[in-house]
C-alpha cells in the first residue's frame, strides 16, 4: 500500500486528524462551578462500554484507488444527470459495486480484520471492571476526590479504542460527561489520547505482529491516566486558556499529521490541543520543530 488516507464518507473526503474515525462526540463544555461542586461532593466514576465492539481500526485506502473510485462515481453521475430517479438509482448501484461504496466496504472489512488481534486479547479480560478501576484510580491520582455520600457528582465515561494507521498504536477515545445530582452537565468533552507503541521490539524492527498483554495493558493505563489528567485540568478552571486557532503539524506513528486546532497547556510527554471538531486531544509527540519533554509513559 502506498499513500494512505482515511475514508470519511462515500465521497472519500480525507481526514487529517490521524484517521481515527471517531464519531462526533459531546460538545466541549465546562461549567465554571464544576470544580467547586466536585470539591464539595466528590465524584463517582461510571464507565459504560459500547454496545458494539470496544476496538475498531482506522480505515485505510491507497490514494490512487480512492481517486479512481471517486472518478468512477463522478463520471457515472455526470452521465446519468437529467435521468431523474432512474439515473440516481443506476449511479447508486454502480457506486456500490465499483465506486466509492465498494471501496469503503473493502476498507471496512480490512479494518475489522486488523482489529481482531487486539479485540481478541482484550475480550479475555474483564474490561468492564478493569476499565472502571483504571478510570477511578486515574481520577483520584488526577486530584478528583471520590464521592461517597448521597449527593455526588457523576463522571460518566464511554471509552472506545481505535487502532491507528500503522496498527502499532491506538487512540483511546473517551466521551466524558460530569453531572450534578440532578443530571445537569458540569463538563463534557470527547478526549482522544494516543498510546505508546505496542511493538515488542522497538519502533524500527520487523516483528511477527503478536501482542503482549502486559504491553497493551500498560499502554491502555497510560492513556487512561492522561485522559483524567486532562479532564481534571479542564474542570479545575485554572488551566491556561486555549491559544488562537492555528495549523498544527506533527508526526504520529510515522505519518505526518496536519490539523487545525488550538493549543492547550501541555503535559509532560504529550501535545494537547482542542481540535476544530471539539475533541480534546493528547498525543505523545511534539510539534514540528519542538523538542518533546521527557515522557512519563516510558515504554516497557
Model description:
- The protein is an alpha+beta fold.
- It folds into 2 domains: 10-59 and 115-283, no CATH class; 61-109.
- Helices cover 35% and strands 23% of the residues.
- The protein contains 6 helices and 12 strands.
- The chain has helices at 34-41, 63-80, 84-98, 100-123, 127-141, 213-236, and strands at 4-5, 29-30, 43-47, 55-57, 61-62, 153-163, 170-179, 185-194, 246-252, 255-263, 271-275, 280-283.
- The strands form 2 sheets. Strands 2, 3, 4, 6, 7, 8, 9, 10, 11 and 12 form a 10-stranded mixed beta sheet that branches. It has a two-stranded antiparallel ribbon with strand order 1-5.
- Helix 5 packs across helix 6 (213-236).
- The longest helix has 24 residues, at 100-123.
- The relative contact order is 0.16.
Amino acid at each position: 500500500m502506498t499513500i494512505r488516507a482515511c475514508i470519511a464518507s462515500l465521497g472519500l473526503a480525507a481526514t487529517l486528524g490521524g484517521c481515527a474515525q471517531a464519531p462526533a462526540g459531546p460538545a466541549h463544555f465546562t461549567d465554571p462551578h464544576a470544580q467547586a461542586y466536585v470539591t464539595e461532593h466528590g465524584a463517582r466514576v461510571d464507565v459504560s462500554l459500547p454496545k458494539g465492539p470496544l476496538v475498531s481500526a482506522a480505515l485505510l485506502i491507497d490514494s490512487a484507488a480512492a481517486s479512481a473510485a471517486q472518478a468512477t462515481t463522478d463520471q457515472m453521475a455526470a452521465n446519468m444527470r437529467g435521468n431523474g430517479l432512474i439515473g440516481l438509482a443506476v449511479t447508486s448501484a454502480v457506486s456500490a459495486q465499483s465506486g466509492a461504496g465498494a471501496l469503503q466496504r473493502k476498507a471496512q472489512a480490512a479494518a475489522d480484520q486488523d482489529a481482531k488481534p487486539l479485540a481478541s486479547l482484550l475480550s479475555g479480560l474483564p474490561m468492564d471492571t478493569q476499565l472502571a478501576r483504571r478510570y477511578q484510580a486515574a481520577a483520584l491520582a488526577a486530584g478528583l476526590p471520590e464521592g461517597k455520600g448521597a449527593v455526588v457528582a457523576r463522571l460518566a465515561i464511554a471509552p472506545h479504542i481505535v487502532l491507528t494507521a500503522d496498527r502499532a498504536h491506538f487512540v483511546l477515545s473517551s466521551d466524558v460527561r460530569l453531572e450534578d445530582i440532578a443530571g445537569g452537565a458540569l463538563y463534557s468533552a470527547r478526549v482522544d489520547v494516543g498510546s505508546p507503541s505496542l511493538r515488542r521490539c522497538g519502533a524500527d524492527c520487523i516483528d511477527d505482529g503478536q501482542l503482549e498483554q502486559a504491553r497493551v495493558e500498560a499502554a491502555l493505563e497510560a492513556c487512561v491516566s492522561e485522559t483524567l489528567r486532562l479532564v481534571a485540568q479542564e474542570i479545575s478552571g485554572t488551566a491556561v486558556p486555549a491559544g488562537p486557532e492555528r495549523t498544527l503539524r506533527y508526526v504520529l506513528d510515522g505519518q505526518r499529521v496536519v490539523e487545525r486546532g488550538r493549543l492547550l497547556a501541555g503535559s509532560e510527554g504529550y501535545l494537547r490541543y482542542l481540535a476544530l471538531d471539539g475533541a480534546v486531544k493528547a498525543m505523545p509527540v511534539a510539534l514540528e520543530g519542538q523538542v518533546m519533554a521527557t515522557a512519563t509513559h516510558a515504554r516497557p
